[in-house]
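Supplementary Note 3. Input sequence used for the single-chain structure prediction.
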Amino acid sequence: QVELVESGGGSVQVGDSLRLSCAASGRTFRSGTMGWFRQPPGKEREFVAGIRRTGPYIDYADSVKGRFTMSRDNAKNSVYLQMNSLKPEDTAVYYCAADSSAKIGLAMRNPDYDYWGQGTQVTVSS
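The predicted structure, written as discrete structure tokens, is reproduced below.
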């Protein structure tokens, strides 16, 4: 059994920063890939960022590139999303996802991960 728990969401103003955390429970689970997705109000879920357990590669959506930074702590089975220069367009429920496989190429952007968290709300006001 694997459970993902997101935290760190909240309400901020334009230009502010937030840091989201996602912790995966379980002593035996080691994710090959972890990702962040978000779902704005009235829109479909979209890819934000993804990272593999090993290696330097981090994939970002164009809309957040240069503003968001994803990082990992394999010892804690956790990933983080540092969000800077937040915009109203960043308002969404942010979901953490984990997959046992090391996704290659564009597969990281597809929402077919094995496990999902319940989401954390991020609201950016003008």
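The two ends are 41 Å apart (CA to CA). The longest strand covers residues 92-99.
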